Amino acid sequence: MAKIDDVDRIDLNGPGLDKALARTRDYADLMSVNADQLLANYSIQATDSNKLLMCKAAAATIVTVPAGLNDFTTGAAVCIGRYGNATVTITPGAGVTFELPQGVAQPLTINSRYGVVRMTKLAPDRWLLRDALTAGG
């Protein structure tokens, strides 16, 4: 899986992001955090704690949650958003468990442009995912 080294910053007050985030009070804690724009497949890193990762690739993007993200404290979150039109799939690495809303199964995709999924760490290698999820890749 490719790793992003060159990350652009997005203005959180720009069109689209402003509307998507303003509708949901749960993301208020992210308003002061720079959003990272992902242009290719990506693996979540320890430095992504409490960030908003916006996927804006022209082609389908896979975001992987690897095992061993020990620098994320229990209760820490990362949000993944779909900024472009391409499909964004969220997948667990080996040994990682996703706790999902009833009726949602893997593979997981973000259900629409400007949709945002919040992932909260519950325990080592165990994550609660909620919001803009759809089953199927």
Describe this structure in words.
The chain is mainly β and 137 residues long. The protein has a single domain (8-135), classed as Jelly Rolls. It is 4% helix and 38% strand. It has one helix at residues 17-22, and strands at 8-10, 35-38, 42-43, 52-55, 61-65, 77-82, 88-92, 97-99, 108-110, 116-123, 126-131, 133-135. The strands form 2 sheets. A 7-stranded mixed β-sheet has the order 1-2-4-6-10-11-8, with no helix packed on it. It has a 5-stranded mixed β-sheet with strand order 3-5-7-9-12, with no helix packed on it. The longest helix has 6 residues, at 17-22. The chain is globular, with a radius of gyration of 14 Å. Mean pLDDT is 76; it is low at 1-34.
Describe the structure concisely:
The protein is mainly β and 137 residues long. Helix content is 4%, strand content 38%. It has a single domain (8-135), classed as Jelly Rolls, CATH 2.60.120.
What characteristics describe this protein?
single chain, 137 residues, mainly beta, Jelly Rolls, seven-stranded mixed beta sheet, five-stranded mixed beta sheet, 4% helix, disordered N terminus
Work out the radius of gyration.
14 Å
Helical content band: under 10%
* CATH top level class name: Mainly Beta
Count of distinct structural domains:
1
Major sheet: order of its strands?
Answer: 1-2-4-6-10-11-8
Low-confidence stretches: 1-34
Query: Based on CA inertia axes, which overall geometry fits?
Result: globular
- Which CATH architecture would you pick? Sandwich
Main pleated sheet: 7 strands, mixed
State the end-to-end distance.
Answer: 17 Å
Task: Note the beta-strand portion.
Answer: 35-45%
The mean pLDDT is 76
How many separate helices? Answer: 1
SS class: mainly beta
* Number of DSSP-assigned strands: 12
* CATH-defined topology: Jelly Rolls
What is the ordering of alpha helices and beta strands?
EHEEEEEEEEEEE
